[in-house]
Structures are given as C-alpha cells and as structure tokens.
Amino acid sequence: MYQKLLSIILFLGITGTHLSAMAENNPLAPYRWQNRLLLVFVPDIEDERLTSMKQTFNQVECEFQDRDLLLGVFTRNATSRIGDDLISSYDQAELRAKYGVKYNEFAVILIGKDGQPKRQLSDVPEMENIFGQIDTMPMRRQEMANRPHACN
Predict the structure, then answer these.
(1) How far apart are CA 46 and CA 86, in angstroms?
(2) CATH topology for the 28-146 domain
(3) What's this model's pTM, rounded to 2 decimal places?
(4) Which of 50, 65, 79, 91 has a CA 20 to 30 Å removed from the CA of 149?
C-alpha cells in the first residue's frame, strides 16, 4: 500500500514542500523560510491602488529580490498569484478568511519568512516603510551581514 501511494505521489510530481503545505492546509507554507510575501487583496484587478503599486514595484524590483520578497495579488476578477505561482480560488478564500479581508476590501499584508504576518494595511504602503520594517527583522539582518547588497 505504501509503495502504491509513493508511486502515485511521484507520478503526480508532488514534492515534500507541497505535501507539508497540504497537510497544514496553509497556502503560504511552501514559501516559509524561503520568501517574505507582500500580499495585496483588491476588489478588482483594475483598482487604481494596485496599478499604482505595480508601477512602484517595477521601480524597486532589485530591492524586492534582494529581500527575497514576492508579490501576491488576490482579486475576484482575475487569476490570483504569488510570484509566478497560480493560487486557487479555494486558497484565496482561505487567506481572505485567515486575515479577515472581504472581497470588496483593499488590504496589504507583509508576511515574514517565518510565515507570520508582520503588518496589515488598508491603503497603499510606502515601499520605503515596508523595506525599513523588513530590514529590522533579525533574519534580514543576518542576510545583510552575510551577502553583499546588490541594489544601488
């Protein structure tokens, strides 16, 4: 029986990370200890606040990468994503419930590498404030000490 289950798992290409995420029932588990997340919940993909944020993100792409930060965008009228990963409507609903964000609300949530929320805002954040908060985190301080700063 065990071998049969193992061959099904291998056939489906499910990794250990995905299995543990499924076991925890936490859509953010695959990112834990790998990435910080900036989750943006918007009522509509055409929301001006999201458009404004995306323009800013394009200008600070290096800073995002340097901080291992991924952008997650969740909306009702478009495909939701974290980085390049598609997020199911089930997982989006789970995240909205977890963080108390209704479908008609705008929210930005910073998640640390430990998987814990660090800040939740109801309007567009100043990226300098987000980066400043990240840079005070103990894990980020270790990263800055151990690897050169790539952005100018």
Answers:
(1) 19
(2) Glutaredoxin (3.40.30)
(3) 0.82
(4) 50
